[in-house]
Amino acid sequence: MKKVKHLYKESFITWFLFDYLLPVLFIIGFWLVAALLIKMPYAFERVLSTADLMPIASILMLSVFREIDAEIKLNRVPEKITITVQKNLAIFFPIVILCVYCIAKYYTMNYTFPTENGKEIDNIIKAIPYASFISIIFSGIFCFSAKWAIISSLKAE
Length: 157
Known about the structure:
Blueprint: H1 2-37, H2 43-48, H3 53-73, H4 81-109, H5 123-153
Helix pairs in contact: 1-3, 1-5, 3-4, 3-5, 4-5
């Protein structure tokens, strides 16, 4: 049992580093390059208004759904109410996030950014990067708690 939990904890660390942190750091890094090296006007809004973090957040939550479902079917975790609720929310939240993503994508595809700093930009364009960040942070917290629930609920072998 301890070996299985240890393997799950190692898997969790790998998940955090490569599935969660790496894509987020690449997107943030691209924003920093655009802002500091290229000196692009409205770099934050231009890079992050594409809402690229939202599909990543959805994919992470859907992978947690599959993980919970597999562990229940393999009878390694009991089908407790907390696990069941997390499993259902791991389907609901990605759908909501992807709907917001589609709206944001449609809006940004039809938006023309000013070519220089100082000119006013649309409030929705200002809000999309923050919504994108909120979705990835929420996804990280949700996935962390769901994965931790799996680890703590593992049945003794």
